[in-house]
Amino acid sequence: xxxxxxxxxxxxxxxxxxxxxxxxxxxxxxxxxxxxxxxxxxxxxxxxxxxxxxxxxxxxxxxxxxxxxxxxxxxxxxxxxxxxxxxxxxxxxxxxxxxxxxxxxxxxxxxxxxxxxxxxxxxxxxxxxxxxxxxxxxxxxxxxxxxxxxxxxxxxxxxxxxxxxxxxxxxxxxxxxxxxxxxxxxxxxxxxxxxxxxxxxxxxxxxxxxxxxxxxxxxxxxxxxxxxxxxxxxxxxxxxxxxxxxxxxxxxxxxxxxxxxxxxxxxxxxxxxxxxxxxxxxxxxxxxxxxxxxxxxxxxxxxxxxxxxxxxxxxxxxxxxxxxxxx
Length: 327
Known about the structure:
Elements: H1 14-28, H2 38-48, H3 66-77, H4 86-99, E1 104-105, E2 121-122, H5 125-131, H6 139-163, E3 166-171, E4 174-178, H7 182-198, E5 203-207, E6 216-217, H8 219-224, E7 238-242, E8 247-253, H9 254-257, H10 262-271, E9 278-285, H11 288-292, E10 303-306, E11 313-315
Domain BsuBI/PstI restriction endonuclease: 167-318
Protein name: Restriction endonuclease
Domain BsuBI/PstI restriction endonuclease HTH: 17-154
């Protein structure tokens, strides 16, 4: 006869139990199937600082960023994610949490730049109060009441986000919205101040870091100039096309990923190698003080423009001022 112990149920670990409960909550909140996974479950637990031995009746509301969330998953749930998983967390979990009203983005400073290392997320008070009842007799009724008001709350959060966006006209009748912050202000200055002075009547081909995940991209126009790009993340911050001179101006805002240094110059040269238009590389700075920090890094045969002195350009060597160079 077999020992009864062979048929005893396997014990459920506190780690897997909390993950299962978190998944059940996400499902109850109506999250799509693509977000019903361990990554999203752990993210919710991190946003509540709910450790394996913790209680749903003792939840916190920390303001926490993407990397700290990943570190928290490793430290308390023994789940390690590769550093390059940051974008997966951001785009495949936190973006959907934000749209659903499960988290607020930068509640302490809504105008924080999107590329700021201080960017953070926090569970709204309304949802936090609901989750405190999970596992109690009140859960079902409190959840039902919350779900009835949720569309109103989500719309309220969306309006608050929209108020923080910066409108930017890129063509007659075409206005896009930039995420708030110094970076977006410099992008606006490039379009409104640099362009009219140094590339009059130029067409805006590309603007990155907009409220839309795809940015503003005249992909067909760029393809007509011989350049086809698969991942727009490789693009500079702004691309202008000077029709009269047949130039493509590739402009980097130093407030995003730094200046056009030797490495970036090589990347852009390769990306735009098939261009039928001449290539002009430009680094834009908000002021001379910021420029001073990067002078040693700026590549030769490139241009520098400073927003606080918009009528001037600084040329880094080469055979001509403001124009394509033969390499």
